[in-house]
Design a protein that fits this description.
Length: 608
Amino acid sequence: MSTHSGTAPRPGVVPEVVPDVDSLVSRYVTPGMHLHLAMTMARPNAMVYALARQFAGRGEFTVSTSATHTAMHALTMSGAVRHLITCFLGDTYPTPRPNPLYRDLARDTPFTCELWSLLSFTQRLMAGATGLPYAVTSSLIGSDLERGLTGDGPGTRPLPESERPPGRPKFLRVPGQSADERPFGLVERLRPDLTLVHGACADRRGNIVLVPPAGEGAWAAYAAEQGVLASVERIVPDDFTDGHPERVVIPGRRVLALCEAPLGAHPQSLRGLATGDERGDVRGYRDDYAFLTELVDRLATEDGAKEWYREWVEEPAGHAQYVRKLGEARRAELTLAAGPLTPREPAAPPAPLPAGAIAAEPVTRQERTIVLGARAIADRVTRDGYDTLLAGIGVSHLAAWLAAALLREQGVRVPVCAELGFYGMDPEPGDVFLFSQLHATRSQQLVGIPEILGGMVSANPRCLGVLAAGEVDADGNVNTSLLADGRWLTGSGGANDIATSTDCLVLSTASPRKFVERVAYITSPGARVREVVSHFGRFRREQDTRGPFRLATWLPLDDGPAGPGSPEEAVAALTRWPVSSAGCTAEPQVTEAEIAWLRGLDPQGFYR
């Protein structure tokens, strides 16, 4: 924890309104601070770029943020971060993947790092916000995340002992009160010096309006020792917020200073605010997919990363210049329609594929995995009575979306949820990104991480989690963190929270590199994994048992005469699992209707 003794909010003092984000961070941030970057759907990216400009090479910051991607890459490249507390490091668009910046994270490069799951991280903020030393969690138990935090395993590096409160461990395991009750954990509170927030609007008293999905919501604002620095799309009259008190999420007494920063979440998104009062209406904007794709491509090489940093962080003298550099046409293209945002009817099924379409553009291994995963989800919903699907990012969320569509055609409606606060989402056709603002518009409810990963998953015995895997072993353990050769993947996000608290189904195309005998790092324990779906069949274990998997269904491969021609050969060639295929049944061929649905969701073929 930082020993910085900067300016705390004082009773009766109105927050300072400053001209821009660079002024905001230069006046209120000093090297060595613990800064929290708030994770709502609109992240404080303009302030992140400003931190990189102002403190390159000298920040020595401890930074906490639930996910390290997009604009956070700029702060990483600036050399301003000494220690990071997070749940995910990598890229999320066009598909979730590792980023070369964090390849050597296990070797403390580019900084030391402390890793959590998304819900346990948020629960730490909740403890800090409510004056408690610890929060209770059902997450982390039995994973290498737990072992890293307690010093018994790899993968995290807590702060040096000299900077931690005396006698207070980060994580404590508490045994269950009976033989039937599983252990739980106590996670230390998180109290940053400052929390940085980007909101839709605020008045000059500092009352901030946030628009859901809420992510971690206002907890980090209350947890901050000194208070909040805020950027907003626009500053509105006081009587506007007085007339809409239900929209104020962070009260002005928590705010030290604020400024206007239109497009302050770019290249990520902000959902608009339509109240019927033009003084407070805020136009939303989408994620800038072109920018995000270019970012991933250029950061793939060291020279490309340096050039991107020079062009988008160093050359713009401030946020206004950054926005001008985007150009008017791009800004207009990103703008979401004005007016009230109301849910629409579920998307109609796409038109059937033309005759011979599958033959002309064959079904790929990844598409087979997604279709078989959707079938497995639909079977388990109808057979076992699951009433909610929690979709992880990647092939898992496409399978959950497709399963919900197939079930709807059978008259069964099951809501699909996503960890940042989406409930009952129906995806916008053609937009494959799990956290798109267009899907928010098509959701039944927009809440936050505690409501979804807590209320709809951990507290709901009829939720089925759907996860993807970098590695999965014969015990169902999933690795999305660290490979045996020391390369970093991406981390947990909410996957560990899901796998430790509810029944799960895991999807992955099969290869000996992915279906391993034992995972190199247990991100998500496999005790509650009921089924693992590959591109050639479905591995099942009996309900209510931790027994071995068996290959239960078989979809013949189209790999030519040299490829595996039987279930036994496929298991031997494409996995390192010692499992039986005795008694497996034929999996029906992938249909044109299933592929039409899938390619309608993913017309760009990102998941092909």
